[in-house]
Prior knowledge:
heterotrimer, B: 332 residues, mainly alpha, MetI-like fold, 17 helices, 69% helix, 0% strand, C: 593 residues, alpha/beta, D-Maltodextrin-Binding Protein, domain 2, 3 domains, five-stranded mixed beta sheet, four-stranded mixed beta sheet, 22 helices, 11% strand, globular
Amino acid sequence: MVKDNSLSSIILDIVIYIFLILLMIVILYPIIYIFSVSLSSSAAFDAGEVWLWPVQPNLDAYKEIVTGKTVPMSFLQAVINTILYTVLSLAFTTTLAYPLSRSKDRVPFHGLITKLVVFTMFFSAGMIPVYLIVQKMHLLNTRWALILPAVISTYNLVVMRSFFEGVPVELEEAAFIDGANELTIFYKIILPLSKAALATVGLFYGVYMWNQWFSAMLYLSDRVKNLYPLQYIIRQIVMENQLAAEAAAAGELNTVQVSTASLKYATLFISIVPMLCVYPFIQKYFVKGVMVGSVKG
Amino acid sequence: MSNQTKKESRGIIGYFKNEFSKFSRGKFLMVLMIPGVVFFLLFHYWPFYGLLAAFKDYKPKLGILGSPWADQYGMAEFIRFFTIPDVWNYVWNTIALSILHILWLFPLAILLALFINELRSQKFKKIVQTVSYLPHFVSVAAVCGMLTLFLSSQQTSADASSFANEGIINMLLLKLGLIKQGIPFLDRANWFRTVYIASDVWQSIGWSAIVYIAALSAVDQELYEAATIDGASRVQKMWHISVQLIRPTIVILLVMQIGKIMSLGADKALLLQRPATYTKSQILSTYIYNQGLTQGELSFSTAVGLFNSIINIILVVIANFISNKLTDTGLW
Amino acid sequence: MKLKKIVALATSAVMAVSLLASCGTSSTQGHIEQDGRTIYTYYLNMYTQDSKGYAEGQDANFAQLIREKFNVQLEYDRIPRGDWETKTNLSYAVGNEADVTTGGKEPQYKKWATEGYLAPIPQEAYTGDDCILKDWKALWSEEDFNDVLALAKSSDGELYYLPTLRQEKAQMCWDYRKDVFDQLGIKEFPKTIDELYDVCAKLKAAYPDKIIISCNGMGTTSPGSAITGFFQAYWIPELILTQHSYVDPVTEEYVPYALTTDAAREMFKTLKRFNDAGFIDKEIFSIDKDTFSSRLAQDNCFITYNYVYNIEDFTKKTKGTNADKNAEWAWTANMVTAYPEKGTIFKRDPLYSNWGPAFSDGIQEDPDRFNALLSMFNWFATEEGQLYNTYGVKEDDPEEIKAGVEPGNYSYTMVNGEPQFNPGWYDESNPETDKDEDKLLTVEYGSMGSQFKKEQHMFDSIRGKDVEALYQAFMAQPNYYYFDQIPMRYTEDEEQRFADLEIALNAKRDEYIQRFFTGDVDPNNDADWNMYISDMNKVGLQEFIELQKTVYERTKAEVENEEAELAAAEAAADGEAAPADAAAPAAEAPAAE
């Protein structure tokens, strides 16, 4: 890139840096706060002494989580679900998005399918009919109930389609003339050229599954509690406070075990960490010119 | 098929003929689409019969199809919905929050992506991206918990000896002398939307920027170099090259977002709302939730869902039409 | 090629995982034949507060016991509180509901009943001395039992769930920082609103930067639940936020909507006066438990309206990091009243708790299957059953109860006629062992009969004896009154209209409760007060009042009728044993077999 050292460029740099640094502070403060509370003693938290760094630091909360059964198991389940779901979803999405990104003249029922697909983004039958179908297919209490009903997200499909639209048709035409069949074109040309798209949409899918708790609540029951994913467990922990209060308000014998603040925040932090590790891998594909470079090569 | 229908449906037959004529070339693409199409038929179109519940007096034992039609020519649930006291206020609150969300988050996310794209230091770039997308993984309940903590206030006045009873935000504002008295943000109806949107931006700005960052990474570097040679400044390049190139992405995401205006979820509003802010914070989904209707009364909740969908689809059709006219890009 | 590798790897991962993901649900036929006997099987939706504290499998001894004794086998689905509404309602809506549900609430049960989801308890099961549910019935005195029925029945006069005895008393009282009161020379907790104001003023003068009155986060029902102590000062029932109406215990006047009356206005004025003086936590309506802990640790609360057994915890929290800090919470049986000449209101413990078992409609198809279950619940209500559910197994229990327990591994012993846990079985008071694994009892025995525990000793050992002491103290106070619960039975249409109006009214009411408090609108100002009333009228207050009146009058008549009938039926049932009783109109009584 040609260096630009004009005044306007320097001002732009200053603006950018100030904006980004301010943003980083605002974003990081609560994250650091979560981390600090997770390491502080509960008494210190109650006394209002924790506001940035840990007070009376200890690892008790993390020890309790690691030695407990629920969190490690649900962590594992969340990882399995996420990997499985991401792979399947990417397969389903690319195979549908690619034909829909091509010319209308080449693909049978192109217009019809596009409209039908987009329609589902705004109209849905609601929770119960879908539940009935999951039940009919004997998916209740299995991990497939979390995965299959959501295997394609229309939103991601549309994003994927517009990425594919960016791949020049000339490339395919050239390959076609060279005697490559459609399969080879899709597999050898389109997919490798769309790594950034695959990475982005894959990330979307993975994160969706990682954050998912509602379908776990709907489709899984206590009988298969080993299948509970992490976010479902986290939700229960985060909500304990409110639940305990409701139980008390209703005059029940209150046996809700309210976790200490540090335990709560430690669990939260543990759910964030994997995302810290995943992003650099994804980022690799966002490097400038990846696609253009390979087009040329 | 009888002769009569054949005559009448010439157009349809013609359509099928036309589509099948594409078959020889599109055979592979057709096969490729099968799993995806099957998914949509199975999990989206099969359940659609469930929409009938909106017009029925649903009894689980009889099933959706077997249940009797609702009173008032099947419109009983809709009438019930429109006679909810204050319902239009809830509709308006929903729309207002959704629109504010779009107005703030879209430009800010794009700005972030553009700024990140301009960064020369690769290391800083990586850090910014990673950090900015982290909040997306903090659960909404936890975000709201922290907000309550940070925004809390006993309305301590600025000349008090200690600000210990104020949350960190009020403490900061008081120390800087910006306010005369702590503001109980969450108890003030006029602050509700600000708090809601600001925390939305906090949570989603980095995440929303990813699509644009990815799209920007596909921009041909030669374009920038050519523009530099032509003497374009960096701001000009940002506007004329970067923004123009991600414009289709922006438009499509915007149209999709407009299609969600009525479907604003209840989670966060429920956690942030206080009775004192109901005039601004009660949205359709929280109302439905508070009434405990979502789970119990299938007919009513389906009717509400249907109403939302209709509004959504009207808005999307308009938005798509406009974007097709103006930018030549659209969802369909 | 790299991509190929990834795809291959992914595919194999998918295969492996799909093998792992097995599904293991079995379908229920209602009963199984085993060793020449019929064992009835049931799905059981059970409400759980805590997802951690129960055993992996089903309770071995318990399962064996109920199978041998009642031919009952249960398959559990424990549902955490946060998911309860969604999951139970969903299961009814899609038709795969459990046979039995324990842990719902009366309003929920009544709603399900009007939807036709539930089976009514057959009247003959609780009529007469020799009915299936005779021990359950005997949990109350005859008179109380009639009141329970009146309250718990639905609008069609049928009973759709089994109310149970309260596990422990749950009245609230004022808790206060005794050390601070002592230090300022305040001898006694105030008895009237004006005295309370003076005490608060004294505290505020001594600690100008501190909050005087706070609350420990009463959930999301309504913000008003944080100030129920003030309600009662103005002769408004503590439960008014959900009940809306009451009958005045002195004048016996029926008030269909309490929070728009003059008494309510006086209360709002008082709250505002307290708030303007800086006595009350500005965030009292939204505070949660964590924040309240912080309040305590930072000496930011000296008075709170709360449960009596929380005081130890409050003291501990107040000391926080500093064990030597001088802090002592105490409770008082002095309630505060605004009308000292009329008397003082306290909340009496309800007659029954309303989260007992309910039975799904389908269970009626096989009366034997239904009866097997009813006899089991009836046994839970016997002395033996209660002891078992509460304490587990002791050495000299009958063989059928001990079966399946390793000899020597008994959970309790009777010491001087009082049950005592054996070492290691249950010890919540000892902080060193305050861990889940020490609470073996709920894990091993009768976790499902928890609704039928009435043993006070157990709560004494967990909570201390203060709960009982408070009750006695309240009862000993002169001129103290409480509100009776009033039966209200809504028909299906009324119920729906009630629900629609209630939510709208609640929202407006809550909005104004908070706005009156913050001073945004002023209850002293007639224009503001009229605005409140007119806003309430706009969302249907008048219609609601009419509805409440109608239902109240009708239910009252119904209940009187039923009681007469029931008395007649009882007499007829007794009459079978003693045919000499000719006065009973036997023709009207349902056939008691």
